[in-house]
Amino acid sequence: MRILLVEDEKKVADIIVRGLKAERYAVDVCHDGQQGWESADAYDYDLIILDLMLPSLSGTEILDRVRRKNSQVPILILTARDGMDDKVKNFELGADDYLTKPFAFAELLLRVKALLRRGPVNRSSVLRVGDLEIDRLSQKVKRAGKKIDLTGKEYSLLEYLATHPGRVFSRTMIIEHVWDQSFQGLTNIVDVYVRHLREKIDDPFPNKLLHTVRGVGYSLSDEATA
Amino acid sequence: MNLRSIKFRLVAWYAGLLTGIFLLLCASLYLDLRLFLENNLRESQARRARQLADALLAHVNQTGEAYVVAQIKDWYAPESNDRFIRVRRADNTLVYISAAPKDGLFDPAEIPLYPPDQSTEFSHKQKLSGGNTLLIAGLNFKSSGNPDYFVEVGALLDPVDTMLNHLFLQLALGLPLAVGIITVGGYLLVQRALQPVEQITRAAEQITQLNLSERLPVRKSGDELERLSLSLNRMIGRLDDALLNTKRFVADASHDLRTPLTILRGELENMLEDTQTDEELRARLGGLLEETIHLSKIVDQLFTLTQIDSGESRTDWKRFDLAELARTTAEQMSLLAEDKNISMSCEVAQPACVVGDRSRIKQVIVNLLDNAIKYTPSQGSVQLRVQGVNGHAILEVADTGMGIPPESLPHVFERFYRVDKARSAEANSAGLGLAIVKAICTSHNAEVEAYSSPGQGSRFVVRLPLQKSESSSSTHDIQHVKKSISAIY
């Protein structure tokens, strides 16, 4: 897996590169926009991580050029600005994900993994994780054949976790998908909902499905993960 | 009418000054004319008395008094000229007195003898019983070889009075008319002159922090008002620059603060990952990381605040139903309350349409509810209510928490204000949640107020301008009512 990182702040780039290399990714770094675009144009990357404020060529401009080249490479935007306008504009230009500085490296890693493994979204009407069954049409949830009553938000949370069983979702990712922008900073809301969800789907059963990944987030899977 | 407006004050001064000047002019004209006419009459009487004395009395030794009397009757015919003539000796015995004039305006016999005077010439006014006034001029005639005589000649003052009265009437009627015309004319003139000021005022009212690039219309008239509009425009330009600078500063500061925070956080995480780090150091690093995250949160909220303050674009403004938004937000947060064993209820009676940035208003509700839940002990309750009252959509969040002491109440919306430091630290808040609520409300022309009775709870009320709901069908309304009933948890 080869990743291009375009980031002009050398220390920030250094931390990201160290972290990604520890996860055994091959990483190329560019410290200015022009170089970044030339590398992105010349090589076939599996993922591009792009800072927005860059010397000589802005991240938005690189994003635009890459997409106009008709390249489908996933692009993760890093930014120190968090204006909604920026966010909307970059998604319109074809960014796949967006992370505001300062971020936890674990959060970045989760998103990188999610983008690299992004296969087809599971669109089947019934999601299955172990003996848990989620019917997306009727929004009914069963475990081991027993019906489980969930509130609206609990259901949305479970459905989101179940779209990629085994994948770890950070609290911020969960807030972005299940709640919305207005709840940012209210991360304890995720913990509360997860605890209630756990009481309903896990507590009555010996085999636990909903896992806490310390310092990172939550995942739903059949295997007992650390 | 606004009594303090320049228009009114100018016209009032104008009219007042002109009235004063006119009054002075008229009074002096009237008095001057009266003096002149009376003097004139007096002099002609005195002249006549002297003629009479010089022509007849100077020779009375040769002619005898009877001749003088006959000559007076002959020359002056006082009865047909409404004139009064009297000649008397020094001992006040009469030589001659004219008879009553033919139209009987006065009776000469009635006129008292003017007390003999040592001065040679005299004059006085004599009121008569008929209401008329006689102006009498006379002289004390002395000549060598002749006895002394008093000669008095009088004429009626009434023609002069009549004329003065007429003049007075004319002035009394003309003055108010003139003042009236001047006032109306002045008003129209001033109004015309101030019209551009009205226009400038109206145009200036339209300019807010969102359209500072616009300018006031300038009329090329070369007058003070053109200069006013030009200097106002220059001022707007400077404001525009200042605001742009602020926005640029926020963007730059945001970048410059976040980058070192990112590095700090990254390095701390790295060290914590390192398995070689010993436990005590790990705990301290963990504390540092926590502080870094807290600092990031404050930076985030500060920039949110600055963004709202510097005027966000209104392109995201839409009509939406505040009641519906409140209901769904409460639903999304209900578990937070339930988790603390707090009962949360949401009462929305009917749709309340408002215009604004939906996600920002949602942030207001989230922050208020979060606050209420945070500071309410278990077994308490939090109540969210939306209703439309008098053209306002009123959103109310009430709790049964510990409340806010009265001395803190006026400050709760201030930045970094904390009612109780220990409590806030525990709740891990930066003290900016309510400041953000206030800033969002201000940018939406809404009011927010806090009420509290310590120990019993607090109540936050947000008042947004209500939009007239579009012709919603009645079935829609019924659905809403049903929803709202089911929304009471």
Q: Brief overview, please?
A:
The complex is a heterodimer of chains A (226) and B (489). With 226 residues, chain A is an alpha/beta fold.
Strand/helix succession of chain A = EHEHEHEHEHEEEEHEHHEE
> How many beta-strand segments of chain A?
12
Strand order of the largest sheet of chain A: 2-1-3-4-5
CATH class of the largest domain in chain B, named Alpha Beta
**CATH fold naming of the largest domain in chain A:** Rossmann fold
The percentage of residues in β strands of chain A lies in 15-25%
**Unreliable runs of chain B:** 471-489
Strand arrangement across the biggest beta sheet of chain B: 2-1-5-4-3
- Largest inter-chain interface? A-B, 39 and 38 residues
Terminus-to-terminus distance of chain A: 24 Å
CATH evolutionary superfamily of the largest domain in chain B: Histidine kinase-like ATPase, C-terminal domain
Mean pLDDT of chain B: 83
> How does the major sheet of chain B shape up?
5 strands, antiparallel
What general form of chain B does the structure show? rod-shaped
Q: What CATH architecture of the largest domain in chain A would you give?
A: 3-Layer(aba) Sandwich
Oligomer, anyone? heterodimer
Task: Tell me the β content of chain B.
Answer: 15-25%
Listing every helix as H and every strand as E from the N terminus to the C terminus, the arrangement of chain B reads HHHEEEEEHHHEHEEHEEHHEEH
Would you identify the regions of chain A where 5 or more consecutive residues have pLDDT less than 50?
Answer: none
Nearest-integer average pLDDT of chain A: 85
Number of helices of chain A: 8
